[in-house]
Specification:
The protein is an alpha/beta fold and 254 residues long. Helices cover 35% and strands 25% of the residues. The longest helix is centred in the C-terminal third of the chain and has 16 residues, at 168-183.
């Protein structure tokens, strides 16, 4: 198995709080991989360390065999990132944002302009290409952010909750683009806590809980004959309190 991503003992601590407690993650090249876990499991922190945005307290990470912290320039040239809480240059138009990102990446002006027009068309943003990003809807912002992440043709694409707050039409567009991307042999890794979405899109899944990877592998193997949601609840543990405990006042008529 050719690996697009591997980590060993990734650890991150903020004061007394341990956010990631020694993550050993493996993602095969060419896979559509989901990183799933409950809120607070450490998914965002893990992705931030793998992509070089956050330095770990301990551990190592490799992308396409390159050490993230020893070869930062080569690694950053190979990855595209769509982070959670996406921040964009809002006083630029969608077209200007793409061209600016491409020029920062060192892509020739003519190539950037051609790629930008193609991405705007695929993302159904041609009509809004000259509109300021500040006026974009949530779905439009996710699509222009994905376009910017794809502009330099990365080999590995990292997405943190890419479908959160996105309408079904925009979500369908994002899905089509990502499936075309992995069909070409590139790799997508996206974090989510929506099991149905991961089950529908992914062929590889890693489950996080409490800062650890508690299961990972091909989707069918992790599911083990169950739905992914059932497997997830068994792996991370369901609610500890009974639904009949407390809240006796809730819904009571005055």
């Amino acid at each position: 198995m050719t690996e697009a991503v591997r980590t060993q003992g990734l650890f991150k601590q903020y004061g007394p709080q341990i956010a990631v407690a020694g993550v050993d993650l493996v993602v095969p090249a060419g896979s559509f991989a989901g990183l799933v876990g409950p809120n607070g499991a450490g998914k965002t922190t893990t992705l931030s360390m793998i992509t070089g945005l956050l330095r770990p307290n301990a551990g190592q990470a490799w992308i396409d065999g390159l050490d993230v912290w020893r070869d930062p320039l080569q690694v950053k040239a190979r990855v595209g990132v769509l982070p959670e809480g996406l921040r964009l240059f809002e006083r630029l138009s969608g077209r200007e944002l793409l061209i600016y990102n491409g020029r920062l990446r060192g892509i020739a002006k003519g190539d950037v302009e051609q790629r930008a027009e193609e991405l705007l068309a695929v993302m159904d943003l041609t009509g809004a290409a000259d509109k300021l990003v500040v006026d974009y809807s949530t779905g439009m912002r996710k699509k222009i952010g994905l376009a910017a992440a794809l502009l330099h043709n990365p080999s590995v694409l990292f997405l943190d909750e890419p479908f959160e707050g996105v309408d079904p039409v925009s979500a369908n567009t994002l899905t089509d683009v990502l499936q075309r991307f992995t069909a070409s042999g590139s790799t997508v890794i996206f974090s989510s806590h929506v099991m149905d979405l991961v089950e529908r899109l992914c062929d590889w899944v890693s489950v996080m809980s409490g800062g650890h990877i508690v299961a990972q592998g091909p989707l069918a193997e992790v599911r083990g004959g169950r739905t992914l949601n059932e497997a997830f609840l068994q792996l991370v543990g369901g609610p500890r309190n009974s639904g009949d405990t407390g809240l006796s006042w809730l819904g009571a008529k005055q």
